[in-house]
């Protein structure tokens, strides 16, 4: 317990906050009656505290968004300063904070990108990227992977591949395909080269069968996150780019989860040297301190809208508080060499540490990832790769929480996704807890 980090002593305790939540708050993705939300009061860096003084090490980065950690002083200060000057302004105005944020993002993007359209989050970033691709090409269909999550609005949730799409399928023109996942290959591949070739051949067949003249865009997470941190085989993204070129399809990279330092680069696309036509972002751009997202637009598409009406907008597009937080986040990440920290942590501490865990524990089928973006895939049988049960995953979550570690779990995987500012000591502490918990679980 570190009471010094709790900003003020109050008589409110965890039970009070929990009871009030259950009475008034309707939560995402849940049967409301089954919920058991964790109570959190405050945070700093990689740590969080509840009202009773319990401390947690946050290896979830919440929803993989607090890349700069909790309560970064420079970002908080920038928000306060902007709040004192101008709290809100219509998107139709020219605003200095918005200009500065857009300029910084364009400068980080690959060559050939020149403008940013700001949204309220990641889903509407994808929504608007899809809209731009459809308007630009005059075509309708959008191809995306079954192994994806793109957000919870009209087109974004139907572009999503995972099961959350199914109760929401009201948008039209969406087609799905299988992107690579060698550990559970859909293509009977036994190595990366085969997986890559066969996944590209499968995508080509989908394009040909759907009719290239009807396909506006291929939307892909630059490094699929929620679906399992599925690092694509070498040359896959290049192959998708070539298919897009061949058939006149707009390539959209969703960098919402993978961008802004998560993989050790500003954008995960830098790992492949592949340039899409549109890039969507949110989360790490300001670590979620104020809700924001956006579309980075390539010159060819932005020029099209110089003379063609863009039928889209949001009251809070380019909100000054969000813009100020983006400027401060990007500047602080550069000044404090946070991407360099990610490289160091990944190469020297987290990557090797997770590989050691995999050697020790039979329950680990595979460890994969980059930067501070790793998955531990848990299986009950190494040979058959049968997934561990949902009950085992709940036990893991609870045991980790009891030991003060917040985890991000998805299906049969632990996603090891600490903030980009995580220290060596914090990673070693988390690795120790994973080791203890997997030992306990493995003994059952
Ligand atoms: N795209 C990806 C890759 C995501 O991981 C997410 C959220 O997890 C989204 C889009 C949706 O972002 P938001 O929840 O901000 O709408």
Automatic annotation (TrEMBL):
User: Under what name is this protein listed?
Assistant: Aspartate aminotransferase family protein
This protein's record includes keyword Amino-acid biosynthesis: no
- Show the PANTHER family listed in the entry: AMINOTRANSFERASE, AMINOTRANSFERASE CLASS-III
Keyword rRNA-binding in annotation: no
What InterPro entries does the record point to?
Answer: Aminotrans_3, Aminotrans_3_PPA_site, PyrdxlP-dep_Trfase, PyrdxlP-dep_Trfase_major, PyrdxlP-dep_Trfase_small
Keyword annotations = Aminotransferase, Pyridoxal phosphate, Transferase
**Family under the similarity heading:** Belongs to the class-III pyridoxal-phosphate-dependent aminotransferase family.
User: Which PROSITE patterns does the record associate with it?
Assistant: AA_TRANSFER_CLASS_3
Q: Which cofactor does it need?
A: pyridoxal 5'-phosphate
An example of a Gene Ontology cellular component annotation for this protein is: cytosol
Tell me one Pfam family matched here: Aminotran_3
A molecular-function term among this protein's GO annotations: transaminase activity
Note the superkingdom of the native organism. Bacteria
């Amino acid at each position: 317990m570190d009471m010094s980090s709790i900003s003020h002593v109050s008589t409110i305790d965890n039970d009070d906050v929990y009871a009030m939540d259950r009475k008034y708050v309707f939560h995402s993705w849940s049967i409301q009656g089954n919920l058991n939300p964790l109570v959190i009061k405050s945070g700093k860096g990689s740590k969080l505290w509840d009202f009773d003084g319990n401390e947690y090490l946050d290896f979830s980065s919440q929803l993989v968004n607090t890349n700069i950690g909790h309560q970064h002083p420079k970002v908080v200060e920038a928000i306060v300063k902007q709040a004192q000057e101008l709290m809100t302004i219509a998107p139709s105005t020219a605003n200095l904070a918005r200009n500065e944020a857009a300029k910084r993002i364009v400068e980080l993007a690959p060559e050939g990108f020149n403008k940013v359209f700001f949204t309220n989050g990641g889903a509407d970033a994808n929504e608007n990227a899809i809209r731009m691709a459809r308007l630009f090409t005059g075509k309708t269909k959008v191809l995306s992977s079954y192994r994806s999550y793109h957000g919870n609005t009209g087109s974004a949730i139907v572009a999503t591949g995972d099961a959350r799409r199914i109760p929401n399928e009201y948008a039209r023109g969406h087609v799905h395909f299988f992107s690579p996942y060698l550990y559970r290959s859909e293509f009977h591949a036994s190595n990366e080269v085969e997986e890559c070739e066969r996944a590209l051949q499968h995508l080509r067949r989908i394009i040909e069968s759907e009719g290239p003249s009807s396909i506006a865009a291929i939307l892909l997470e630059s490094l699929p996150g929620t679906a399992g941190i599925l690092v694509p085989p070498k040359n896959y993204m290049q192959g998708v780019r070539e298919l897009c070129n061949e058939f006149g399809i707009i390539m959209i990279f969703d960098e919402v989860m993978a961008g802004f330092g998560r993989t050790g680069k500003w954008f995960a696309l830098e790992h492949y040297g592949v340039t899409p036509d549109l890039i969507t972002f949110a989360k790490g751009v300001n670590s979620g301190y104020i809700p924001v997202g956006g579309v980075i637009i390539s010159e060819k598409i932005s020029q099209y809208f110089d003379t063609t009406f863009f039928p889209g907008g949001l009251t809070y597009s380019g909100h000054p508080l969000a813009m100020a937080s983006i400027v401060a986040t990007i500047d602080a990440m550069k000044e404090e060499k946070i991407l360099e920290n990610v490289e160091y942590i990944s190469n020297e501490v987290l990557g090797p540490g997770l590989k050691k865990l995999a050697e020790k524990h039979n329950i680990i089928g595979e460890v994969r990832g980059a930067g501070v973006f790793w998955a531990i895939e848990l299986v009950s049988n190494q040979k058959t790769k049968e997934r561990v049960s949902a009950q085992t995953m709940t036990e893991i979550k609870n045991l980790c929480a009891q030991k003060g570690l917040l985890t991000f779990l998805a299906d049969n995987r632990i996603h090891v996704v600490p903030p980009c500012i995580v220290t060596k000591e914090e990673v070693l502490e988390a690795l120790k807890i994973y080791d203890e918990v997997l030992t306990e679980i493995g003994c059952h």
